[in-house]
Amino acid sequence: MKPHYQRPGTSEGTSFTCFIRREGAFGFAWHYHREYELTLITQGTGTRYVGTTVERYYPGDLVLLGPDLPHTFASEPQGGTAEAVVTQFRHDFLGPEFFALPQFRTLQGLLARSARGLRFGSAPGEVQELAARLPQLDGAARTVGLLDVLHRLSVDSTATPITGPGYTTAPNTTMRDRVDAVCRHLQQAHTEPVCQEKVAALVHMSPTSFSRFFRRAIGCTLTDYVNQLRVETACSLLTDTSLPVTEVAARSGYQNLSNFNRRFRELKGVRPTEYRAAHLRAAKPS
User: Fold this and answer.
1) Domain count, the chain
2) Whole-angstrom Cα distance, residue 34 to residue 192?
3) Could you say which of 98, 129, 161 is where a domain stops?
4) What is the pLDDT of residue 273?
5) Which UniProt keywords apply (predicted)?
6) Cα–Cα–Cα angle for 175, 214, 272, nearest 5°?
7) 138 and 238 share a domain?
8) Domain identity same for 80 and 145
9) Cβ-proximal residues to 26 (8 Å cutoff; 6+ apart), any chain
């Protein structure tokens, strides 16, 4: 039930790894590692799970995740080929004091902020092109290219934290395992009725203790997190199917249409029908 610890390797002649991940679909593989990870989605759509934040991703999605931050990218069932350019590196990949040098102060700040994950939804096309080209470079050129990308991201004013201020990587193994057991369970079961007593039992806690634990570890209530999962499922159904909104609500876990509309608007700022209409307009060829 806990996330898989991953130990990325490095290719010969370099101190970090950079590769193209291309699969028929990205499966839900909850994991974490000691490396920073820069991921650029180049093909496919799906759902990105970082810490306890759930969001859809599209081609052009660019994120920087700090060490030990659990995450996974899961493709939509009909999303087509999934492809991403992934770069993973440790803080000391250029030496233990490299990022402490005065000229790299902004990069050090970027890496510190990535502890909560950072998304660059409006990153310029030039930055995306530089990130996409990294696997094609060798030796010093790849290292310089990575530093160039990180520098550009460090001064990008559109960088947005992914996880909320209440979330940090778990301070001990027991807490991390409990959080991850709950998140994995809810990823599979959120479209069904969720009973706090049963979820608490998964991690051998009383409902009252679990409620305090969940809010302290994640920064939101269990209900808030389940609503986040359900609304992201609804977003997928709204954009990828022509199902009536009432059916979308039911398949997302809402038996009450008014409650669905209210929760959707709280999280997305628009009504479900407006969200669908906006995505249909965006999908039409110009």
Assistant:
1) 2
2) 34
3) 161
4) 95
5) DNA-binding, Transcription, Transcription regulation
6) 130
7) no
8) yes
9) 44, 46, 72, 73, 74, 75, 82, 84
Q: Which residue has the tokens 């679909």?
A: 25
Q: Would you tell me how many other CB atoms lie within 10 Å of the CB of residue 28?
A: 14
State yes or no: pLDDT of 13 exceeds 50: no
pLDDT tier at 230, thresholds 50, 70, 90: very high
User: Which tokens hold the place of 44?
Assistant: 């496919």
Write out the DSSP string of 160-226. EESS-TT----SSHHHHHHHHHHHHHHHHHTTS---HHHHHHHTT--HHHHHHHHHHHHSS-HHHHH
Residues 140 and 197 in one domain: no
Q: Has residue 227 been placed in a domain?
A: yes
Residue 284: φ, ψ to 5° = -70, 135
Helix (H, G, I), strand (E, B) or coil at 269: coil
Q: What is the CA radius of gyration of the chain?
A: 20
Per-residue model confidence as pLDDT tens digits over 89-131: 999 999 999 999 999 999 999 999 999 999 997 677 899 999 9
Same domain, 218 and 140: no
pTM flag (> 0.70): yes
